[in-house]
Write a structure and sequence with these properties.
By secondary structure, the chain is of the alpha+beta class. Helix content is 27%, strand content 42%. It is built from 4 helices and 10 strands, in the order βαββαβββαβαβββ. Strands 3-1-9-10 form a 4-stranded antiparallel sheet. A 4-stranded antiparallel sheet has the order 2-7-6-5. The longest helix has 16 residues. The protein starts with a strand and ends with a strand. The relative contact order is 0.28. The mean pLDDT is 96.
């Protein structure tokens, strides 16, 4: 099963991000915009794991949640990863000390359970569109589309399964642990 550990967004946050996506869509020739139900912050991509490994992931998540307090997470900018004439558009998340602590605690607990560390450095962001082609220079995106909405309280982390259902990608919560 294909899995990842994430912070899922509440309804208000998903609505705010979707509103921002809709503004950006008007400036795009084309793009594959992330579905509202799939908006989240990935903390660690586990990839393909066996069903018997789920318990180990759950233990790492539970230990991480038990060692971290709830905190406010804020969105701070929009940006893109260049792909030639197209790009991946993202919404940046402020790298607060609480978020970094949560991530580092999770990495240590996953390592104890036999999982590998993330290869890339932690750059908290939400992918809002793939294969996006804008009507103008991509560099303008960061200036034109700033997130002008409140953040959200992070109070749990989740083990998620990613499944393809026909053309649609569906994320299913397998386990969640509340922060203290």
């Amino acid at each position: 099963m294909r899995t990842f550990i994430a912070i899922n967004f509440d309804s208000k946050t998903k609505n705010n991000i979707t509103d921002l996506q809709n503004k950006i869509k008007a400036d795009c020739k084309r793009g594959n915009f992330t579905q509202k139900d799939n908006l989240h912050l990935t903390l660690h991509f586990l990839g393909e794991i066996e069903a018997e490994d789920v318990e180990y992931a759950e233990e790492a998540i539970a230990a991480t949640a038990a060692a971290n307090r709830k905190f406010m997470m804020n969105f701070d900018k929009t940006g893109y990863f260049d792909r030639g004439d197209r790009c991946i558009l993202w919404l940046g998340i402020e790298k607060s000390k609480e978020l970094v602590r949560l991530y580092e605690t999770l990495e240590r607990n996953l390592l104890k359970q036999g999982f590998k560390r993330e290869r890339a450095s932690f750059t908290p962001h939400v992918t809002i569109a793939r294969e996006a082609a804008l009507f103008y220079n991509k560099k303008i995106v960061s200036e034109k589309f700033k997130p002008e909405f409140d953040g959200m309280i992070v109070n749990e982390i989740c083990l998620m399964e990613s499944k393809r259902m026909g053309p649609k990608l569906v994320y299913k919560k397998l386990y969640a642990a509340k922060l203290i």
